[in-house]
Write a structure and sequence with these properties.
Radius of gyration: 18 Å
Number of domains: 1
Strand order of the largest sheet: 1-2-5-6-7-8-9-10
Helix content: 25-40%
CATH class: Alpha Beta
Structural class: alpha/beta
CATH superfamily: Aldolase class I
Distance between the termini: 23 Å
């Protein structure tokens, strides 16, 4: 006789995102950091196989520098799709990384027309005069059912997000936030306690995930998993396994998180479940609903 389901009903499947490249690191930091299109696609397939449901996509220019470019996004997404089909949500970044103005970020999002995009509110709305163009962009993305993830870097960022949502600049009834535990700075190391101030301010109305820096990335992401959030791992923020060894690949970090989630009894979402679980309606937030079978 089987017993009751030990998984708490409030625990939706864990959505694991992977950020394999980022805007700053290079092969000098890790030889397996993917920078070329074929390398990014291969890493995407390996991370899908390891348990990731979403890929946070950065692309680089000829010199290896951070690039916001719609054609490069489309070409790289096509290469990823050729290997994984719809089995990954491809989330493009709009990160400025010190190179792009808000109008340039807005333009590339509009031109790319991605399935999903991450937006740092402090970058796209650095001052009040940017509220109107940002509101127009976000309204269009909401209408087109693009999955938007709002990146916040502090408790003040959450408070600001709540205000923008209240005033209708951020549209919709349900949202997806990313809490960044720390800053992109030399030697940054995040710890699980860094999550607590975010949760104290967040009203739990919206889905959330975190990303963390340094060798305690795994501990931070497991804290998120235990508290009902989601998580992002990858070489963008961290190169180390929890045992202190350098990770072999991005997929290595994804596998580590999956193993930890299994120990706590939290199921891991594939792309189809992630699309459904992060949606605003019963049919899913995005137009693409097909995904690999769960399990």
């Amino acid at each position: 006789m089987s017993g009751p389901d030990p998984t708490p009903a409030a625990w939706s499947p864990l959505v694991i995102s992977v950020a394999p490249t980022g805007a700053r690191r290079s092969k000098a930091d890790h030889p397996a950091l993917p920078m070329e299109i074929a390398e990014i696609a291969a890493a995407a397939a390996a991370c899908r196989d390891a348990g990731a449901a979403m890929l946070h996509l950065h692309v680089r220019d000829r010199d290896g520098a951070h690039l916001l470019d719609a054609e490069a996004y489309r070409e790289t997404t096509a290469a990823i799709r050729s290997l994984v089909g719809e089995d990954l949500i491809v989330q493009v970044t709009s990160e400025a990384a010190g190179r792009y103005r808000p109008d340039e970020q807005i333009a590339v999002i509009r031109e790319t027309r991605p399935e999903a995009v991450s937006i740092a509110l402090k970058e796209i709305i650095p001052s009040p005069e940017w509220e109107t163009p940002a509101a127009e962009l976000l309204a269009d993305l909401h209408r087109d059912q693009v999955m938007v993830q709002y990146i916040v870097f502090s408790t003040q960022g959450i408070t600001r997000f709540h205000d923008l949502r209240r005033r209708g600049i951020v549209p919709g009834d349900r949202h997806f936030l990313l809490f960044v535990l720390g800053r992109y700075s030399m030697g940054q190391t995040s710890v699980p306690d860094d999550l607590l101030p975010y949760l104290a301010v967040h009203d739990r109305r919206d889905d959330w995930a975190l990303c963390a820096f340094g060798p305690r990335e795994s501990a931070c992401t497991l804290a998120a998993a235990a508290l009902g959030g989601h998580a992002r791992v990858g070489f963008e923020n961290n190169l180390m396994r929890s045992d202190g060894e350098v990770a072999d690949s991005n997929a290595d970090l994804v596998s580590q998180l999956c193993a930890g989630a299994a120990l706590m009894g939290r199921p891991v979402a594939d792309a189809a479940l992630a699309r459904e679980g992060l949606s605003e309606g019963p049919s899913g937030r995005t137009r693409r609903a097909a995904g690999r079978p769960a399990g």
